[in-house]
């Protein structure tokens, strides 16, 4: 894992959310492992986006 993971809405995650402009209903790539949203929800769509971004970042960092 190249993108450090933090618990959803931990103080570290909140700092990264603020830095990157992640909205309250979104998920930051650093939080992907700590949440498992119900499929079909807006939160799940945000999780899919964050997972995609995390995968892209990890390829770039390799």
- Total strands: 0
**Strand percentage:** under 5%
Terminal CA distance reads 10 Å
The sequence of SSEs as H and E is: HH
Radius of gyration, Cα only, in angstroms? Answer: 11 Å
Structural class: mainly alpha
The main sheet comes to:
none
Uncertain ranges: none
Into which percent range does the helicity of residues fall? 40-55%
Mean pLDDT: 94
- The best one-word shape is globular
**What is the number of helices?**
2
Region (Disordered): 1-33
Biased composition (Basic and acidic residues): 12-21
Task: Provide a descriptive summary of the structure in words.
- By secondary structure, the protein is an all-alpha fold.
- It has helices at residues 11-20, 42-61.
- Residues 1-33 are annotated as: Disordered.
- Residues 12-21 have a biased composition (Basic and acidic residues).
Summarize the topology.
Elements (H helix, E strand, L loop, with lengths): L10 H10 L21 H20 L1
Kindly list the characteristics that best describe this protein.
62 residues, globular, mainly alpha, 2 helices
Concise summary:
The chain is 48% helix and 0% strand. The protein has 2 helices and no strands.
